[in-house]
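Continuing the series of single-chain predictions for the mutant panel. This is the parent chain; the variants come on the following pages.
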Amino acid sequence: MLMEEARRAIASYGRQMSGQGLSRGTSGNLSCFDPELGYMAISPSGLDYFSTEPEDVVIMDLDGHIVEGSRKPSSEHQLHAGIYRLHPDAGAVVHTHSVYCTTLACLRQPLRAVHYAMANAGADEIPCAEYATYGTHALAENAARAMGSGKAVLLANHGLVVCGGSMAEAFAMAVDMEFTAEIQWRCMAIGTPVVLTGEEMADVRRQLLGYGQKQ
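Parent structure:
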């Protein structure tokens, strides 16, 4: 089975995505990319994540051709492929319909640095891409254009997309983006959020270089 480890990661993190409320029902999708093969493993379309097994995950090239798998791939495979083309160093993409990120996306407002939790996204502000119908090439283009060199973007009236070096990294970023979006929304409900400056965010990123356990 091609990309077996990636398929297992997608099945496992898909359950976490649903279990943590980052996406409901069959919404949202996940993928992993193998640069040596030039293939991505992506979650199947419309299949409950608690029922998704590694063999249900589909292997595709970035041009949309199915390489291995009996399931129909996620309708957002063009979106994922576009992010991998933009960020060839990315190993995973997570797309959620998490409530607070989607709320800001429906307001067509950016996600701002109201909390340093968003520092790993590689930008001081997460933009909102122009609206396009889900599953279309236009959506993929809009998302890549808005994301630029950052690792996260809101999709107007839709949700959130993030990328990372691994599935664990991308998923953690999606969690951090949702936390930050909730804080922004709560601040907006009672006043005007105070946004961290670029210098303050740069200090956070320097501090994060020494965060966690050494391998």
